[in-house]
Design a protein that fits this description.
This protein is an alpha+beta fold. The protein has one domain (about 5-95). About 15% of the residues lie in helices and about 25% in strands. The protein has helices at about 60-65, 85-95; strands spanning about 5-10, 20-25, 30-35, 45, 50-60, 75. The chain has a four-stranded antiparallel sheet, with no helix packed on it. Strands 4-6 form a two-stranded parallel sheet. Strand 2 (about 20-25) and strand 3 (about 30-35) form a beta hairpin. It is globular, with a radius of gyration of 17 Å. Zinc ion (ZN) binds near residues 26, 27, 44, 46 and 47.
Length: about 100
């Protein structure tokens, strides 16, 4: 089965370096993440529900980065903080005025 048709989950081995789409109904995570071959798919930092990943675009060139010590494996995905959104900042500003 082609990698593009498979769904991967937290703790699975990353089969190919590339950009993966993130599916996680429980929390609002980034839409995409770049992962490196032979690492494990990261978990959500807020819960233990598995995160689902779909290969969006393979990046073979990243395999060469594997041989350098310049990167750190991504272990957890941080939810996007809603309180940092510009709309809320505006509301706060208005309250202060
Ligand atoms: Zn979560």
């Amino acid at each position: 089965m082609p990698l593009h048709d498979q769904a991967f989950r937290t703790n699975d081995l990353v089969p190919a370096s590339g950009i993966y789409e993130i599916l996680h109904a429980q929390h609002l995570l980034a839409k995409q993440v770049v992962l490196f071959k032979s690492e494990r798919f990261p978990k959500c930092s807020r819960c233990d529900f598995p995160v689902t990943f779909l290969l969006h675009h393979g990046l073979r060139a990243l395999d060469y980065v594997n041989h350098l010590d310049v990167r750190v494996p991504l272990l957890e995905l941080q939810p996007i903080a809603l309180e940092d959104s510009p709309q809320n900042a505006d509301a706060q500003l208005r309250e202060e005025m």
